[in-house]
Specification:
The protein is an alpha+beta fold. It has 17 helices and 21 strands. The protein is globular and about 70 Å long. The relative contact order is 0.18.
Length: 444
Amino acid sequence: MTDLHNVNEAYLKEAASDPERLAKEFDEITEYMKASTAIHHGEYVRTCYMPKLFTETVFAQFGSDIRTLYGILNKVMRAYYRDPGYRALFGFDKTAEELILRADPSVSLLPMARIDFFYNEETGAYKYCEFNTDGTSAMNEDRELNLAQQLSTVYRNFRAAHTTRTCELFESWVKTLCAIYQRARRTDQIPYVAIVDFMDCGTVNEFEVFQGFFVEQGVPAEVCDLRSLQYNAKEKVLYGPGGHKIDAIYRRAVTSDILQRYAECGPLLAAVRDDAVLLVGDFHTQLVHNKTIFRILHEAQTQAMLTEDERSFVNAHVPLTKTFEASDIPRVLADKDAWILKPLDSYASRGVHAGVECGEDEWAAIVRATPLEGYLLQEFYRPYVTENYGIGPDGSFGRNRYYNLTGVYVYDGVAQGVYSRVSLSPIISSQYSEKTLPTLLVDE
């Protein structure tokens, strides 16, 4: 079995053997990313010199654990639809509940997801961080970063000396979406696909890359703003802004944004309610995307549905999570590094506060200012630390310690690839010092 620590150290040693080349190639990688399609709201993706390395054995274990997790989530979803009492545990408003209840999870439990977790590379232990089942993103970051890494001599040498592969995340999604459509519609027809979001908050470059892969695979597709769709209720046909009939929607707009802009989404929602279009990423994904799922998994009603092995799995991998209440404040203030506060329904780490990032007074002010309604209290799990070459806290290039976050892309229940992020701080977010690393899977 490949020892990841030794492989990483050997990689870093070769990188350090020629400091001038190391610095030059890092700058070239950075310049490539600045000119790449991995741009979000004008910002390029920051990275480090060495990619993230995982063995095929580790990836296979990730896939096996995902199957266990999905079995648990399937039970949760079934209970939500079956039992009004259990449904009430989620606390969704009537609009969200209506959207969820008209969806059909049997078409696909979760068409696309990125399951994020903090993985300890020495022990194999991990805790989940977030389930991204709405607006799952950053596939194009991994693709472009692996292309940028070809500018690195050490990367080229490593791939020549080992059997490796990058994670293929585009053609596989085209095939997955078409398979879901054909299964749901009981047809062999190739659908016309619209990739939709609110374009003022979506990763438009990535949408266009996906569109290119759809077209290359013989699947017609367009990218459009959700608000530009038009619905003919009489004919029960949804049209894109160019007038083409749409068969399937690849939904990138997260449910919380749709609920906030509900009045602007009338044509899409009417078409979905009439089953005039297949929404790939229907609103039942909100049951898992909303961070309250972490609390739900620890609820007694959920635990009673699970097998002993499933309960052990939840206890091992789902951090203790509860509704934030006034009675929690004293213990949260007394042990600030043990806790993190998260809003129920957000993304990109918006509104997340961790005691480990704050001084005592600052944390006390945050805790007292945080609204009790709409926030979760969760145990904080310190991420695993590795070393890499990149821009350090003082703004200079060098070897630094980085906290790690791992995400597994899952297409219709199948683990498809890995997304890797690191940060100089324990909170791994673009608000802080987040970097994205390309992932290489190494055969043993």
